[in-house]
Specification:
This protein is about 40% helix and about 15% strand. It is built from 34 helices and 27 strands. It has an 8-stranded mixed sheet, sandwiched between helices. Strands 20, 21, 22, 23, 24, 25, 26 and 27 form an 8-stranded mixed sheet that branches. Strand 26 and strand 27 form a beta hairpin. Helix 1 packs across helix 11, helix 22 packs parallel to helix 32 and helix 30 packs antiparallel against helix 31.
């Protein structure tokens, strides 16, 4: 019979035999061309390297055994009839049938493996190659006949042919059921990758003629070599040693490595997987130190690239721009790809402009100054982590250890990269536990990582070290105690197999900043008015969007400041407006800003500015937040030396709006002032200790006080009033529950790929963070009786980019459904033009009111009607 493996709309089809042989050829080519990948695979295997390679190539060849089924062949009835394949009796997915076929016909015996469970993880990794494991149900051959019919004999014949052609070794005795579990994870990623490359008609063409493995193998290898080369999946070669200024060409010639950077540069040649934790003040050069560490791992052959994971899309965008200036200095291949990995990357023009078609070579001298990304990496977010260099939200990496379809492909990409995680202190208990699990997986697969933080509580540092140690133990490495012993700051913690070293360093930056505790909100407004009058620039970091919006409104309406001088920045803007505001904020308050740009400009913002954005203010105001965040925020005041600071702003100053940390506060001590903020930061004891320490010190002397302040805020030597005990117990319970939920949701490396069955979701549905359920609103504007997307430049054309630029998230409690009375038909018509047909967002029609404010109608979770207001200056607001 003639079995189709790939079919196309024009009626053409590609023979299943050919497709299977081509995928095997891709596997063989990858293993032979990528020495580091081969070494990592062999390290995880219980067998000798030659036999391991043979088994992987064999499994790649039989990965689509389930496609011999009647069910699959009749997905294209016209081809099934043409090829004489009878009607099926039942419906099953071909990957599930493939896994069941393996068990029912005892194919493990065909390859010489006597234990029915020993090789199961590898078989499932290959046969269930569509992104999630399938269960090996112990069916009898007769039970599968209704799915395969006489095609079962052809499937067996093809398997026997593959065994005879590829396998030359015999299984050793004594293998245990768990022997292949460590290898199964990276193998699952490899099978997905080989199948995706081997499915491209660009490289393998279309041919419906059958052919034997031996007759086609050499030709298939030649095609695979071209495919692997042109896809750019092979790692880009690292440059050898290079000097500091060549690596960071954006720094002035006079710049010298900081003590932290020098400590990284002075580390001995890397011999194997390592974990580094770098703690230093904001602006202390941690990012450059991380790049130096990544380059060290790359030139030593331990890593083949780098990925930087950050807390938010805004910080990922900023990191992408920084890497775009310098990442090429890491690679010999100047066409090495730099990718941006997060859900909003379609909004980033610089990244979109960098994408190069597969058939385009990097040759133009004009391209020397720009980043490039080959389209094979960019056309699917699941392939992003395979690129040699990238920046994105940490969520993209966390999906590798969750029951998210194709997580194994993400895990494979990360295993090749030096993982850099910035702002480690910024995550809640759930996401923090996922990060620990990611470190365990990464360590077990032989990866290296570096964690960056301005302020890291010792308890969190210990948890992260233990997670890494657990992973190395699962890889069979000998580990030592990883309990932190040194309280110095700045600090470099260096962990390698069998050794841990803590290196206290001198700081390249000092913050000696007077601090004023402000108990009346009016005094905060007056401070901003005064700095505006003096010609300076200032920022007030508020804990909630509502407080930020209210503060801007008062500055304009009650204090008479010009609207154009008071900028609002928070997360509740559409994609297009948020990108514009982010760019404006960086231009006015960034490192390269000049006095004329900064004069009389005020920023009222939420936490979006406290992480990884290189901003510099003459005066900084902040609502009270946990101590590590207060230190982080303080780094935004006088961050860079400037020749000009206006009168009254010659020295740095931070003012903190807080309740007075009296000895006998009531239980609503924080919530009385921050009604909504108490839900953002729910630990009143932590906040009280932070406030008491700030009041007692009256200044921030960093790094001298850094460790004392952070550990003190978390209870070292400072008792909080007992009135907070009940709330603290409640939050402790919530944290334990969140960690347990993260542990339950995470995959288990030691269990192997086949044991993690459960519920597997699309990566857009798998939660990497907890929080209030939200809804994505897609804003439509009604002008002159016509509807268009908020960010539409042409009402006739609707692109993915324009859809994303028109979206904003809102609490699902506040908006359950839009009410577009009179526009229902127009909305449905516009949805048909959208790439996703409006499936994943709630489209709401807005009408322009006065003062450039747009409004629409919706109902909340209780069914009550609400008004949705939106402005490009203030963002989205829901009014009951």
């Amino acid at each position: 019979m003639q079995y189709w493996g790939k079919a196309f709309e024009d009626g053409q089809w590609h023979h299943l035999r050919r497709h299977c042989i081509e995928v095997a050829a891709v596997m063989k080519t990858l293993l032979r061309a990528d020495a580091a990948l081969r070494a990592r695979v062999f390290k995880l295997s219980p067998l000798d390297p030659d036999f391991t390679e043979e088994l992987l190539v064999y499994l790649a060849c039989v990965h689509d055994l389930g496609k011999f089924s009647l069910c699959f062949q009749h997905q294209k009835p016209e081809l099934a009839v043409l090829n004489g394949i009878p009607e099926p009796n039942g419906k099953e997915h071909h990957t599930e049938l493939g896994v069941q076929f393996w068990g029912a016909y005892k194919l493990y015996e065909k390859i010489g493996c006597q234990g029915s469970r020993v090789f199961t993880p590898m078989a499932v990794a290959a046969l269930a190659h569509h992104g999630e494991p399938r269960s090996v149900v112990r069916k009898k051959p007769a039970q599968l006949r209704r799915f395969f019919g006489s095609c079962a004999d052809d499937a067996l014949q093809f398997n026997d042919e593959a065994v005879a052609f590829f396998l030359k070794h015999e299984f050793p005795a004594g293998l245990r059921d768990e022997s292949f579990q460590p290898l199964s994870w990276i193998a699952a990623g490899l099978f997905i990758l080989c199948d995706w490359i081997g499915s491209s008609e660009i490289w393998f063409g279309l041919d419906s003629n059958t052919i034997s493995i031996s007759a086609y193998w050499d030709e298939a290898l030649k095609k695979a070599e071209r495919a692997v080369s042109e896809s750019k999946i092979l790692p880009a070669a690292s440059v050898e040693r290079t000097n500091f200024h060549k690596l960071f060409n954006y720094l002035p010639e006079s710049a010298q490595p900081s003590s932290l950077q020098r400590a990284v540069m002075d580390l001995p040649e890397q011999q194997g997987p390592e974990l580094l934790i770098l703690e230093d003040l904001t602006g202390g050069g941690k990012t450059e130190a991380a790049v130096l560490a990544a380059h060290r791992a790359m030139r030593c052959g331990v890593s083949q690239g780098m990925f930087v994971g950050l807390p938010t899309m805004a910080t990922a965008n900023a990191m992408y721009s920084r890497l775009a200036e310098t990442y090429r200095s890491l690679f010999k291949d100047k066409a090495a790809s730099l990718i941006l990995a997060h859900g909003g990357r379609a909004l980033h023009d610089e990244y979109l402009d960098s994408i190069m078609p597969i058939d385009e070579s990097f040759a133009s001298p004009d391209d020397e100054g720009r980043a490039v990304c080959h389209s094979w990496f960019a056309d699917n977010r699941k392939k992003a982590l395979l690129a040699p260099c990238g920046a994105g939200t940490i969520d993209q990496a966390l999906l590798a250890v969750l029951s998210s379809r194709h997580q194994a492909l993400r895990l494979l990409g990360l295993s090749r990269s030096f993982l850099i995680v910035d702002e480690v202190h910024a995550y809640d208990s759930y996401t923090g536990q996922l990060l620990s699990n990611l470190l365990t997986f990464h360590a077990a697969q032989g990866g290296s990582a570096i964690l960056l933080s301005a302020t890291l509580p010792n308890s969190l540092r210990r948890d992260l070290l233990e997670a890494w140690s657990k992973g190395r133990g699962q890889a069979g490495a000998d580990m030592v105690s990883v309990a932190p012993e040194i309280n110095g700051f700045p600090l470099l913690t260096h962990v390698q197999d069998g050794a841990m070293q803590e290196i206290a360093l001198e700081s390249s930056r000092e913050i000696n900043m007077p601090l004023e505790c402000i108990y009346e909100e009016g005094a905060m407004f007056q401070s901003l008015v005064e700095v505006h009058k003096a010609g300076g620039c200032g920022c007030w970091i508020r804990n909630t969007v509502a407080d930020a919006v209210g503060a801007r409104t008062r500055l304009i309406e009650d204090f008479g400041l010009p609207e154009e001088d008071v900028i609002l920045f928070h997360a509740r803007f559409t994609g297009v407006d948020r990108m514009n505001i982010e760019q404006l904020v960086l231009e006015i308050f960034g490192k390269g800003s000049v006095p004329e740009q900064r004069a009389r400009k005020l920023l009222v913002a939420t936490q979006v500015v406290e992480q990884s954005l290189d901003l510099d203010f003459d005066l900084l105001l902040s609502d009270l937040a946990p101590m590590e965040l207060m230190i982080q925020r303080a780094g935004r005041c006088h961050r860079h030396p400037r020749e000009y600071r206006p009168s009254g702003c010659k020295s740095p100053l931070i003012k903190v709006f807080m309740p007075d940390p009296v000895d006998d506060p009531d239980e609503d001590w924080f919530g009385d002032i921050f009604e909504i903020g108490q839900y953002v930061y729910p630990r009143p004891a932590l906040l009280w200790r932070t406030a008491r320490l700030l009041k007692e010190k009256g200044e921030l002397r960093l790094p001298e006080q850094a460790r004392e302040l952070v550990e003190g805020a978390y209870g070292a030597g400072l008792e909080a009033p007992t009135v907070f005990d009940e709330q603290e117990i409640k939050v402790d319970g919530s944290d334990i529950a969140e960690k347990s939920l993260a542990g339950f949701a995470s995959l288990d490396f030691s269990a192997g790929y086949s044991s993690n069955e459960g519920q597997w979701d699309n990566d857009t549905m798998t939660p990497t963070r907890l929080g209030e359920e939200s809804r994505q609103l897609r804003l439509l504007k009604s002008e002159n009786g016509k509807l268009a997307l908020w960010a539409s430049s042409d009402g006739k054309f609707v692109s993915v980019k324009e859809c994303m630029r028109s979206e904003v998230r809102v609490s699902a409690k506040k908006v359950k459904q839009a009410v577009n009375d009179g526009f229902e038909d127009d909305v449905e018509k516009l949805k048909t033009c959208m790439p996703d047909k409006g499936r994943w967002s709630e489209c709401i029609v807005l009408h322009e009111n006065e003062n450039e404010i747009w409004s629409g109608c919706a109902v909340d979770i209780h069914g009550d009607e609400v008004t949705v207001l939106y402005s490009s200056q203030t963002g989205l607001e829901v009014v009951c």
